[in-house]
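Help needed: design a sequence for this.
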């Protein structure tokens, strides 16, 4: 009998306080030797021992790969609600390398835990059961409300949830007696038991008890790993003999992990060199192909959404995929601005895996499919409810492949702040947006309006080629020479044509820049907008500025925040350029620094996205900020329907590119206008009043997904061409979630 767990090997070390360096070096040696797991005995009442938890924390900093676990933790001595936080913290700090092995413990009276009472065996099991529930509840950051448990042994009244661990930390139990084994079958992920303490047949008997309890609790016994502590002495004699002894324990008793109990480096070396590989081979011979991917816990499977064939996921994707019941779900369900509840988040790590993920998604044509790179899409369509998210954030490499030709290859999952930091040492920069947390994938398929726009154009103007996975799963390169139609479409309407897996850019030489932030009293809102527009249009190309006007609030007048970048390192020129901008209204505050583009872009939080609800924005372009436009804008800002109103200068180098050269066609506009509100109806009504002054829109700043917005985003000829190309590249309309360009009925194959 086996439980489908790939064979792993661990060590069981004594945390001797006499020579702390020894146990640390044994642990690091075990990692070097290829052991999968290091466990540390936990006897906190033992004066000759280091505290196991403290030691594990130390080891987490000294190792890189190996899983760490107490072997096993004396639970009554640790308050479970606190232990949950400690374990989640250690798991996060170690990059998801913790397994939490718990035991009923001993000597708690001596240490003064559990009120100094001696617990009966039955009470111990009940206490462990409550502790497991408590720990899991604190880790479940998607659960409702704070954690409350009024048990026989633990009373927790309103503990906050979190932090969540970095991965689904397995909860193992050290157990031998029937009641503990039953609990284990009901709630735990692994059975830790010591070989010498077992009578013949006891392993099989224990497995039976666990399996029966698991099935009765609606679980699959294969969820539970069997881990056997084996003594170093037991391994006297030649390696083949050890294999002979251990093999039946795998084949007949389902042991998935052997934990070698020794503090002797030589024994570790012999085991790793002779026994582990030979045993692996023998197991592979006896049980070929018997180890599929690990099974998710019943509690996780219970949260699966309808209509997704979770168990059909290819092996390559299953390991990194995240389901609603997984611990990492809270961090991937939503985007920066929009709440979501997808049924499955696929996180391919290679181009081939992207194609596999797409094939899996295509086998679910009834479900929404969202593409995600950095999750900052303002429309929020990179998440959904109940569908599949194809998240390419793991494709985040940034390679300066040819510094002399300024060629840079970037994965869609890289963030612009990391791009800027990677290019800076080469004296290079790529014009991007204003926020370093934004992902490359979304921005570089739509446009890219940033602080260097007037001098260096749009981000897409620096694209020289892309690699893409198309709807049919094929991988193509698109450039001016290969699939040129596709390359044209990707620069402005990329999301409709496939999944970009790599961008090939030509960066610009950019040295230090002037970076200014000015705050104005915007009581004369219209006058300020008009003066700023005129000053910005008259400015040389090396100045790009954005003006954000916030409505009056609680007796405070409207305020305007101007951010300007001057692409020169010469302080005099910077000040000359900024002077006209500073004169547009009464200044409240000002700051000007000479800095790097990378340091301006290093402005994003590393926190996971936790957007809620639906973002409500509108976007448009304007040729000029006329007095009439400024007056209507002031009415909008003061009208109460919007809380954010921003105008960005564009023009300059952006306008050097002909409108039909890329799918992004609004080249002549000098300004991009965006507003944010809360109530869709009110925002739309207020926005409509600006209509006569503006034209077109930038899809990356729009959230109104009604089809008519496409006609604003793309002039008729551009939209016609896009729809023809859509028919050729995505005739089944697979990529439809974010501003869908429907395929025209005439198909014109355009693959090169
Ligand atoms: C705080 C903030 C600041 C911003 N500042 C700017 C700015 O200054 N200038 C600017 O131009 N934009 C800006 N944006 C808008 C931003 O560029 C777009 O929303 C962009 O789509 C975000 O990219 P992402 O990869 O982070 O988003 P995601 O949410 O991951 O993706 C957004 C959309 O892009 C498409 N997409 C994502 N990855 C791929 C891929 N690999 N292949 C094909 N299509 C893909 C999908 O349709 C997806 O729905 C800002 C957004 C935010 C939230």
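Sure. Designed sequence:
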């Amino acid at each position: 009998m086996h439980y489908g767990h790939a064979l792993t090997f661990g060590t069981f070390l004594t945390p001797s306080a006499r020579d702390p360096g020894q146990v640390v070096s044994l642990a690091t040696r075990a990692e070097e030797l290829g052991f999968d797991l290091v466990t540390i005995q936990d006897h906190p009442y033992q004066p000759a021992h280091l505290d196991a938890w403290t030691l594990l924390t130390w080891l987490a900093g000294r190792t890189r790969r190996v899983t760490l676990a107490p072997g096993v933790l004396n639970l009554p001595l640790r308050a479970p609600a606190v232990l949950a936080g400690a374990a989640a913290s250690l798991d996060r700090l170690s990059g998801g390398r913790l397994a939490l092995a718990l035991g009923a413990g001993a000597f708690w009276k001596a240490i003064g835990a559990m009120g100094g009472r001696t617990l009966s065996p039955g009470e111990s099991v009940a206490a462990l059961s409550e502790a497991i529930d408590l720990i899991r509840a604190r880790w479940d950051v998607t659960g409702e409300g704070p954690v409350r448990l009024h048990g026989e042994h633990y009373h927790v009244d309103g503990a906050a949830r979190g932090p969540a661990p970095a991965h689904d930390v397995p909860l193992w139990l050290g157990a031998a007696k029937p009641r503990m084994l039953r609990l284990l079958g009901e709630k735990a992920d692994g059975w830790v038991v010591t070989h010498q303490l077992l009578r013949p047949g006891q392993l099989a008997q224990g497995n039976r008890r666990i399996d029966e309890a698991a099935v009765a609790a609606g679980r699959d016994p294969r969820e539970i790993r069997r881990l056997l502590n084996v003594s170093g002495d037991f391994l006297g004699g030649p390696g083949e003999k050890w294999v002979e002894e251990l093999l039946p324990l795998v084949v007949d008793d389902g042991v998935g992990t052997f934990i070698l109990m020794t503090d002797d480096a030589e024994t570790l070396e012999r085991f790793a060199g002779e026994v582990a590989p030979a045993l692996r081979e023998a197991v592979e011979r006896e049980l070929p192909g018997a180890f599929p991917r690990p099974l998710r816990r019943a509690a996780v499977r219970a949260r699966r959404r309808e209509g997704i064939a979770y168990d059909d996921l290819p092996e390559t994707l299953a390991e990194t995929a995240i389901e609603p019941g997984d611990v990492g779900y809270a961090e991937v369900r939503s985007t920066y601005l929009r709440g979501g509840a997808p049924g499955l988040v696929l996180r391919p790590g290679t181009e081939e895996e992207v194609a596999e993920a797409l094939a899996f998604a295509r086998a679910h044509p009834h479900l929404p499919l969202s593409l995600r790179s950095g999750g900052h899409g303002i429309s929020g369509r990179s998440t959904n409810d109940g569908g599949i998210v194809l998240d390419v954030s793991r494709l985040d490499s940034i390679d300066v492949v040819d510094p002399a030709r300024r060629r840079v290859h970037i994965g869609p999952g890289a963030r612009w702040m990391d791009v800027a930091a990677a290019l800076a040492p080469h004296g290079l920069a790529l014009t991007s947006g204003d926020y370093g947390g934004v992902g490359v994938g979304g921005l570089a398929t739509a446009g890219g309006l940033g602080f260097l726009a007037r001098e260096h154009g749009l981000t897409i103007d620096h694209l020289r080629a892309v690699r893409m996975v198309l709807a049919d799963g094929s991988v193509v390169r698109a450039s001016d020479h290969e699939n040129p139609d596709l390359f044209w479409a990707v620069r402005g309407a990329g999301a409709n044509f496939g999944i970009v897996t790599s961008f090939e850019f030509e960066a610009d030489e950019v040295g230090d820049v002037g970076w200014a932030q000015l705050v104005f009293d915007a009581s004369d809102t219209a006058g300020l907008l008009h003066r700023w527009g005129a000053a910005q249009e008259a400015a040389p190309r090396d100045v790009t500025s954005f003006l954000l006007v916030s409505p009056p609030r609680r007796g405070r007048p409207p305020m305007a925040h101007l951010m300007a970048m001057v692409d020169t390192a010469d302080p005099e020129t910077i000040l000359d350029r900024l002077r006209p901008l500073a004169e547009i209204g009464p200044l409240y505050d000002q700051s000007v620094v000479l800095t790097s583009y990378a340091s301006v872009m290093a402005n994003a939080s590393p926190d996971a996205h936790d957007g809620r609800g639906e973002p409500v924005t509108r976007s448009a372009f304007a040729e000029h900020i006329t007095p009439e436009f400024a007056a209507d804008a002031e009415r909008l800002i003061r009208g109460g329907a919007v809380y954010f109103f921003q105008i960005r200068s564009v023009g300059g180098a952006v306008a050097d590119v002909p409108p039909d050269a890329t799918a992004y066609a609004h080249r002549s506009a000098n300004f991009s206008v965006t507003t944010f509100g809360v109530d869709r109806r009110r925002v739309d009504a207020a926005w409509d009043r600006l209509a006569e002054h503006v034209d077109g829109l930038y899809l990356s700043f729009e959230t109104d997904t009604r089809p008519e917005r496409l006609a604003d985003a793309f002039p008729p000829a551009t939209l016609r061409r896009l729809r023809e190309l859509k028919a050729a590249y995505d005739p089944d309309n697979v990529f439809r979630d974010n501003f869908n360009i429907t395929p025209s009925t005439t198909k014109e194959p355009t693959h090169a």
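The CA atoms of residues 655 and 667 lie 5 Å apart.
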